[in-house]
TrEMBL record:
Coiled coil: none annotated. This is RNA-binding protein. Keywords: Ribonucleoprotein, Ribosomal protein. SUPFAM superfamilies: Translation proteins SH3-like domain. Gene3D superfamilies: 2.30.30.30. One of its GO terms (cellular component) is ribosome.
Length: 93
């Protein structure tokens, strides 16, 4: 996927101790890695670097956050938590 298509997209971690947790893609680092945030443990100031193959990518794009990321405006952790707050944790199994 292109960088523009990934930004602001909701993803779920498939592996690791954060498995099943919802995140938002903040940046595409290269073809294999993205930076993800949740506004809680993975804050905007220190995003998590995660392999794309370890993420379950959804079709949900949070347009408000995507616009802030693209325009390089200030994005707060509270905004991220607000949008992810009502997302259920999905466990694969």
């Amino acid at each position: 996927m292109k960088k523009e298509e990934l930004l602001g997209r909701v993803v779920y971690s498939k592996v690791g101790r954060d498995s099943g947790k919802a995140f938002i893609i903040l940046d595409k680092i290269d073809d294999n890695y993205v930076s993800i945030i949740d506004g809680d443990l993975r804050k905007v100031e220190k995003p998590k670097k995660k392999k794309i193959k370890h993420l379950n990518i959804t079709n949900d794009v949070i347009e408000d956050i995507k616009k802030l990321i693209i325009s390089k405006e200030s994005l707060s952790n509270a905004e991220v938590k607000k949008y992810l707050g009502n997302r259920d944790v999905i466990k694969e199994g």
